[in-house]
Amino acid sequence: MVFSSLLFLFRYLPVVLLLYYIVPRAYRNAVLFFMSLLFYAWGEPVYILLMLFSTVVDYANGRFVDYYIKKGQRSKAKIFVILAVIINLSLLGFFKYTDFVIDIINKVAGGSLTPLSLALPIGISFYTFQTMSYTIDIYRGDATVQKNIISFGAYVTLFPQLIAGPIIQYNQVDKQLKSRRETVGQFAYGIQRFVIGLGKKVLLANNIGLLWDNISAMNIENVPILTAWIGILAFAFQIYFDFSGYSDMAIGLGHMFGFTFLENFNYPYISKSITEFWRRWHISLSSWFRDYVYIPLGGSRKGLGKQIRNIFIVWLLTGIWHGASMNFLYWGLYFAVLLMVEKIFLLRYLEKAPAWVARIYAMFFILLGWVIFAFDNVSRGKAYFAAMFGGLNNSFINGDTLYLLYNNGILLIILILASSGVITKLVKKKMEKVTIPTTIISNIFYLLILFLSVAYLVDASYNPFLYFRF
């Protein structure tokens, strides 16, 4: 079940909201827990057992950590933190990376091991990081132990951000799980935020995704240079509006149930450096690696050499986190190198450069990174690079290029303006001048987005979520 489906919008969500608000406040976490399990079971009922196992294991380890810390025995508490980390990473590694490792062994050692071909549990990369943060936060003193296993289960399985984030660290919702107050204003904001996310996903990401699918399916040897650049630009917009749209919907749903989740995107394509880009893109993942890997390794406190080492480790892990394929490993290392170069010397020059120069630099290397990311087949990715830079003796432009621009030009302009924040700024500026109450205009706008999105979904056959596979 996905948020951008008629089943979710008109059946599942209304039932959950009704149950949530009619039960006494003390039972609302239980409603979230059991209805979230139903949400997860809709696609993968078998893996509910895996999620329940993770819930029980991390709940028990958290209680042990709290118990030994209160007794002043931090060394024993640390054992249970390590145990929780090992169990969580073992589950993630088994389901996500076993076949990847088998494939490497077969290629390097000439083996003939048979892949397990396990289905990847949806959202396992996200909820694994969330459950690990629980015991670590308790050990550090950043959060208090959750003694109610149902409330803890609600945290682990919380359906608004279960499948594709944002990644919620336990210390961010510790108090909200125990005591939160839902308000009409908060609920209304949640609906607005959800509708915006739905529109970004359905009206923008899906439509530009069709263009990318069309170009990426072509015979790369015959793809003109301009067509190749249009294609990777389309992918860049698809993955941004797909993922940020999902995050908006998750944040909106959180508000409907009284939760406040941190932002996950902040117009990343206006960045003036790769360093800034990763402060604006998938913020919850970058924050998780910063708080639980980069800083514990020493961060930038122990000299440039160790800082470079820490950046390398974090981005090696970031690449692998995204998928069990060599292209994701290369993608992580690619950004590690760029960030190292910026940290060593380039960043200070970018800060002095004209803004437009810095933005072109950042967007150029971001697009190259998306080529690595987009192609699981590394050889095909190399060929696409060659097509972009004329290495296949391909033409710069042809009739198909003009046809694609003619049919998608307006959409591309809308995407450029929307991803840069220009549309948001213009709307706010115009709203300050109108005499009609802004609530009336904004409500009409949200209803229009909802209507158009639902109309699209009624007849849609193309509705993927790119980050579900991570």
TrEMBL record:
Topology with respect to the bilayer: Multi-pass membrane protein
TM region(s), chain numbering: 6-23, 30-57, 77-97, 109-129, 149-171, 223-243, 249-270, 308-324, 356-375, 403-424, 436-458
Keyword flag Transcription: no
Subcellular location: Cell membrane
Molecular function GO labels: acyltransferase activity
Similarity section: Belongs to the membrane-bound acyltransferase family.
Protein name as catalogued: Alginate O-acetyltransferase complex protein AlgI
Protein's organism: Anaerosporobacter mobilis DSM 15930
Phylogenetic placement of the source organism: Bacteria, Bacillati, Bacillota, Clostridia, Lachnospirales
